[in-house]
Amino acid sequence: MKLMEIWVKAPQLRGADLLIAGECVTKVAPKALEQLSKNKVVLTACPEAEGSYPAGKLASILRASKPRSVAVLTVEGSPHCYTLHASLNEAIFITGLYEVKVQHFVVHEGQVYEVSSKAVRVSRYLHLVEKLCKRFPEIEEELTQYSLEHRFQKEAERR
Predict the structure, then answer these.
(1) Which of 10, 99, 111, 128 has its CA 20 to 30 A from that of 145?
(2) Residue 52, pLDDT score
(3) CA distances (Å), 139 to each of 133, 134, 150, in order?
(4) pLDDT tens-digit readout, 34-75
(5) Which of 110, 106, 35 minimizes the C-alpha distance to 72?
(6) What is the per-residue pLDDT for 103?
(7) Residue 56 dihedral angles phi and psi, to the nearest 5°
């Protein structure tokens, strides 16, 4: 089911454990999706294709259907998928429903990593990310392993 197409009071959402998955996860990491979707209602979304920032929709689902938990699973490094994580944090803030269990997961090269809501919040404040980069310069080398954008930039700087 698609997040942006489901009715916020759909019976299957009421009191459920929800998994919001980036649409691309279904193709890029189907095993990760299968692993995390056990006993959950899965809703997929692609903010890039749908042109949406789904915080309002998630807030409405939280308020109307009172799910027991909400998890997000996306492909690591995808800027549009990232907005699903930020949207969930914002929906919790909007509704004040801090008692809902929230989890954030990213999949990278078939491996699933859990990240905290705090990490999602920090990533929205680039001046704080900059402080972390300066304090831990080795992170740039790690970034080079994952980011084509960063690798190409470094190559261009060397020319």
Answers:
(1) 128
(2) 84
(3) 7, 9, 12
(4) 999 999 999 999 999 998 889 999 999 999 999 999 999 999
(5) 106
(6) 98
(7) -65, -40
Which ranges of the chain would DSSP assign to H, the alpha helix?
25-28, 30-36, 47-50, 55-65, 79-95, 117-123, 126-135, 138-146, 148-158
Q: Which domains does the chain have, with CATH numbers?
A: 3-124 (3.40.50), 125-159 (no CATH)
Contact by Cβ (8 Å): 74, 81: yes
State pTM to two decimals: 0.93
Pairing of strands 17-22, 69-75: parallel
CA angle, 32 then 119 then 45, to 5°: 45
107 vs 112: CA distance, rounded Å: 4
In which residue ranges of the chain is pLDDT below 50?
none
